[in-house]
Amino acid sequence: MINVYQVKIIKSFNETKFRKDSRVKDFFHTFLAQNLQIYTNIEDQKYAKNTIVVYKIFDICIICIKGGVLVNQEYCQFKKGVIDHMAVYTDESMSDSAISQLLRGSSTLKIDKSNCYDNPDAKVVFSEKGFLFQAKFSNCESKFDDTMTMFALSLAYREKMEYYLNLTSSIVDKENYHDVIDVKKDFYTFNLKYFFSNPVHYNYQQKHTIWKIIFQYYDILEQHQELKIQIENLVDILYIDQNQEEEKIEKIKEDKRKKIEMFFLIIGGFVTLASLISAYKDAMELFG
Description:
288 residues, alpha+beta, 10-stranded mixed sheet, 6 helices, 10 strands
């Protein structure tokens, strides 16, 4: 059995068509778990139950659709230009070449410790397009669901980094550096609330290890550090801009002060000259 799911970031979804899962993913750190919401579609004439799953993480929505199912705008609003990912669940034994062919469409995917978790109960392989979960024993569906949740979180992290990078780039293009303070504040607030190098509690060892592979394979920390440096550089530009403005203001004030001083010097010169002329006239009258 092989089940293929389409995974992608969406704009929004119609909550009336879904039922919220009351279970909390308690393997995540508490605050992140509390802010992760999972919705499954309500069974109707169009879709069977659990055909569509939506993960809402902070302000980002990610949809997981069972293979071969088309979802219309009555259920969700799709974003243009979003990369499609896939999640594959199988209980069949597959060679690395077959896994590569399924995930990449060729035999070029190198499968090693950098992108693969291989255990007696399950094998998980990641690629740029998504991941494959191979169950070696029965009843691994819940582990696949948890891996899908972690993958959704990685997509949300990457989407958030992309959002901030685009935001900082637009600030540079518009040279509106004063907005960067708000961006920096928002970014650091996001970090404190949601960003963890490993959000999985250590006692969930299998999930903890799988997340480490996800985090490293998709270069999430590298993207985060690049973004942090870019924001700090923008702050430096803002300070330079502010200092230049202050220097301009000080120069204008100094020029104005010099003009006033020169004005009073000229006035003083005229007063002195007038006094000398008056004194000269008085002297001429007195001794003339």
